Amino acid sequence: xxxxxxxxxxxxxxxxxxxxxxxxxxxxxxxxxxxxxxxxxxxxxxxxxxxxxxxxxxxxxxxxxxxxxxxxxxxxxxxxxxxxxxxxxxxxxxxxxxxxxxxxxxxxxxxxxxxxxxxxxxxxxxxxxxxxxxxxxxxxxxxxxxxxxxxxxxxxxxxxxxxxxxxxxxxxxxxxxxxxxxxxxxxxxxxxxxxxxxxxxxxxxxx
Length: 207
Prior knowledge:
Helix content is 33%, strand content 15%. The protein is of the alpha/beta class. It has a six-stranded mixed beta sheet with strand order 2-1-3-6-4-5. Helix 5 links the parallel strand 4 and strand 5 (173-177).
C-alpha cells in the first residue's frame, strides 16, 4: 500500500492515506493507454466531412467535343477531376471513427493513467473540497494554496452548485465526480486534485 499525504483546502497536511496498489501502483500499460486515448479522441470526431465525386457533381452529361480530329485531348465529361468544378478524387467521405475496446482494456487503461499520476507526483489528495460561495476567486485561492497551475482535474465524490459556479470560468479546470473520470481527462491534466471520498469510490469500482 502506497502512503500519501492528505491536505486540507489551505494546502496544509492533515493526515496520511494508503492507496490501493492494484489501482494506483500497477505498472502502466502504454499500449492499452494509447488505444484508450485514441478511442476517446476518435469519439469526439463527427465524421461528417464529405466531397463529391464526378458522379455526384451537377452537369457533365454530354461529351464536350468529338473524340478525334480536334487536336485536343479526348474528354468524356467536363466534370472529370482535371476540370474546374469537376469531381474530387480520393476526397473524404462520411465515416465513423468509432473504435472498439473491451471492458478489461478500458479498466487497465484507466488504472494506468491513475498510476502515472502517482509515479509523476501529479496527484494531490485533499480531505474535502467546499466553497462557501460560488465566486471564481475562491477557487483560484484554493488552487494557489495547493500550488496547482496549468491544466487541473478536480475529482470529488459529489458536486454541489458552489463548486460548479466557482470553477466554470476557469479554462484550465475540469470538475468531475468520481464516477465520471475517464482516461483522456486524466492524461490531459497536469495536476489531479482528488478527495479522500472520491478515492474510495474509485477503488471500490476498479479493485
